[in-house]
Amino acid sequence: MISSLTTRIFAIFWLTLALVLMLVLLLPKLDSRQITPLLDSEQRQGLMIEQHIEAELRQDPPNDLMWWKRLFRAIDKWAPPGQRLLLVTSEGRVLGAQRSEMQIIRNFIGQSDNADHPQKKKYGRIEILGPFLVRDGEDNYQLYLIRPASSSQLDFINLLFDRPFLLLMVTMLISAPLLLWLAWSLAKPARKLKFAADEVASGNLRQHPELESGPQEFLAVGSSFNQMISALEHMMSAQQRLLSDISHELRTPLTRLQLATALMRRRFGEGKELERIETEAQRLDGMINDLLVLSRTQHKNALISEAIKANHLWEEVLDNASFEAEQMGKKLDVPYHPGPWLLYGNPNALESALENIVRNALRYSHNHISVSFSVDNQGITIHVDDDGPGVSEEDREQIFRPFYRTDEARDRASGGTGLGLAIVETAIQQHDGWVKADDSPLGGLRLTLWLPLYNKRI
Known about the structure:
alpha+beta, Heat Shock Protein 90, 6-stranded antiparallel sheet
C-alpha cells in the first residue's frame, strides 16, 4: 500500500492514463470485422469448391449467347447450404450478388484480390471470404463466398468501433472506478478531520486516534490535530485552575475586608465611607462568583444533561421574578406560559440562563416586563421584553461579551458585573440554541432565546 498521498495520486493518475491509452490503441485491433487470413479449414473448403466449379464448367460447354447462365448454374449447384458464391470476371463484373450488397462486395474486392492469399472480413450480419481462382478455359474468374457472420461479437461492441466518441465514453467509464477510489481515499480522512473539528467547535475536546492513519500527509495532520487537542485541554484545565486559585486568593482578603468593615461599623457606627466599602466588597464578591460560573459553563464537559419539561424547568423562575417585580413596584406579564415541552440539557444552566435575562430586564426596566413562550416543530422561542432605556444597535452584539458595558443608561451605576449575558450566551449555545438582542415593542430591549426540542435532537 502506497503510504504517501503525493505518490498515490501520481501513480493512480499515470495508471489511469496508461489504461485509457491501452484501450484506445488495442480495442480497434480486437475488432472481429478486421480483414484477416483464412483458417486452414476455410482454405481447404474454398479450394474444394473451386475444383468442383471448374469441373462443372468443363462438363458444360460454353455458349456465346448464354455464357453467364452456365456460371450461375455452377455457383448455385456448389454453394454450401445457407451460403452463396460470387464470381468476378476479369472486367470486374460481379455475378451472383444482390443489389443491396454491391457496395460492401466492392469494398472487400478492393481489399482482397490475391487468390494466393485469400482473406475474410465481416460486414454486419454477413462474412465474405476469398478470392479463389476459377479457370474456365482461357477465362479466369475470382470466386468469393458469402456466409452468415458468427455472433462472437455483440452489436454494441461493433457500435463502439464505429463511434469513436462512444468508445471514448466507455473508456472513461472503465477508468471511473480507479478515479472514484482515489477520490474516496482522499475524502475519507478529510471527512474524519472535519467531524473531529466540528466536535472541537462544539466544545468536545477529545482526541481522535483514528486520524493518525492513512496517507502520510493526513497522518501528520491527525497527529498535529491530536496534539492541538491535548494543548487545548491543558490550557482549559490551566485556565480553570487559575480562576479557582485567583478566586480562593481573593476571597481571603475579601473576607478580612468584610470583617474589618463590620468591626468599624460596631466601633464608629454607620457612615457613607463604610457603606461605599461594603457595596464595593459585595460587588467584588458577586464578580468572583460570576467568573467561576462562566468558567464552569464554558467547559462543556462539566455539564450533566438530562431530559426535562419546560414548565418544570422555568415555572419557579417566573414565580420568583413575579414576586421580585411586585416588591419593586413593577409589572411582570407572562402572556404565554411554558408547556410540557421536552428539552435536553443541564437544568441548572438552562434555569440560570432565563433567570439572568429576567433579572436583567427587572433591573433596567422602568415599570413593565413581559416574558412569553412559544413552540413549533423545531424548538422553543422565549421573548423577554422591558420598557427600559434599551441598547443601541451597534452595541447589541457586544453586550454578550464578558465585562462589556454600554455608554448609555445600562452602565455600572445600575449594578451588575457585566458577566450575566456572557454566561447566558455560553449556556444557550452549548445546548445548540441561540440568543439575540432587538428592539422591544415595550420601548426597551428584547432578548430572544431559542432552544431545540428533545425529539429533534435524538
